[in-house]
Structures are given as structure tokens and as C-alpha cells.
Write a structure and sequence with these properties.
- α2 (28-45) packs parallel to α5 (108-116).
- This protein is α+β, with helices and mostly antiparallel strands.
- The chain has helices spanning 2-24, 28-45, 55-70, 80-91, 108-116, 119-125; strands at residues 52-53, 97-103, 131-138, 144-151.
- Strands 1-3-4-2 form a 4-stranded mixed sheet.
Length: 152
């Protein structure tokens, strides 16, 4: 009877742990959705309209995150003017463009929380924008580089 109880407990522990790992593993869509959710939740708390996710902007944001993750460009906003020109060319009449980048945070919520504690990044999140693009990439060590682009 003791062996059966022990096996039952071990089985339950394994069953409980497996789904938790699956739930919290970052995926492309999960990270993008989470960033959009937390940014729009904050915007709602300030009486602002939610941002709409734009696939063209997400593609540009992802490219920048990959460039930072591979060391093609240093962490930061290098090339921002070129990204803004690309978006204006692809999307047409854009009047404003902003960008937030982050690295080292383990989750999308941590990235958004970091941005909200930085005046410049917070200004973008609370800005008069209507669309956003979100991208991320991991470097060889597993560090995540996040980019969020804002447009109007």
C-alpha cells in the first residue's frame, strides 16, 4: 500500500508539472499577444484607445530584434530612422512613429513593466498612436530582445 501511495504522489507531481512548463514557454504569438495585452491594459487604465496589431510593423520589429540578438546592431535604437522610412513606404500616410526596445526580461509582462518605469518608453505606450508592431528574438544564450513599434 505504501508503494502505491508513493507512485500515486510521484505521478501527480509529474502530471502537475508538465502542463505548467508548456503554459509558460514563450512562443512567437504568446509574447506578442502578452505585450499587446499589457500595453492595452495600461492604455485602458489611462482612458486611451487600444492599439491594433499590424503585421507589417511586427515584421519590422522582429527584424530589429533579430539584428540585436545576433549582434548585427547594438542593443538600442540604431537604424530607427530607416525603420520609420520603411514603414512610411509600406503603410502610406503615417504621421508618427515611436519605438521601445528591451532585453534581459524573462517575460512580456516584465518588459512592459520596465517600459512603464521609463519616462520615454511610457510616453510611447501612452502616446497618440493607433497601431503597433511587436517582435522579439533570442540570442545564443537565451536572452530575449523585444521591440515594439508604434504608429499613427
Amino acid at each position: 500500500m505504501g508503494l502505491k501511495l508513493c507512485l500515486l504522489i510521484v505521478g501527480l507531481m509529474v502530471a502537475v508539472q508538465l502542463p505548467a512548463n508548456k503554459i509558460y514557454s514563450p512562443t512567437k504569438n504568446r509574447i506578442e499577444e502578452d505585450i499587446l495585452y499589457y500595453v492595452n491594459l495600461h492604455r485602458k487604465s489611462k482612458g486611451l484607445r487600444p492599439l491594433r496589431l499590424n503585421s507589417v510593423e511586427s515584421s519590422v520589429a522582429t527584424r530589429h530584434s533579430k539584428d540585436m540578438a545576433t549582434g548585427k546592431v547594438p542593443f538600442g535604437h540604431q537604424g530607427f530612422d530607416d525603420r520609420a522610412k520603411t514603414l512610411r513606404k509600406k503603410l502610406g500616410s503615417i504621421t508618427m512613429v515611436g519605438e521601445n526596445v528591451a532585453s534581459g526580461q524573462m517575460t512580456a509582462k516584465e518588459a512592459v513593466d520596465g517600459w512603464l518605469h521609463s519616462p520615454g518608453h511610457r510616453r510611447n505606450i501612452e502616446g497618440d498612436f493607433s497601431m503597433t508592431g511587436i517582435g522579439w528574438a533570442k540570442d545564443r544564450r537565451g536572452m530575449i530582445y523585444y521591440t515594439q513599434i508604434f504608429t499613427k
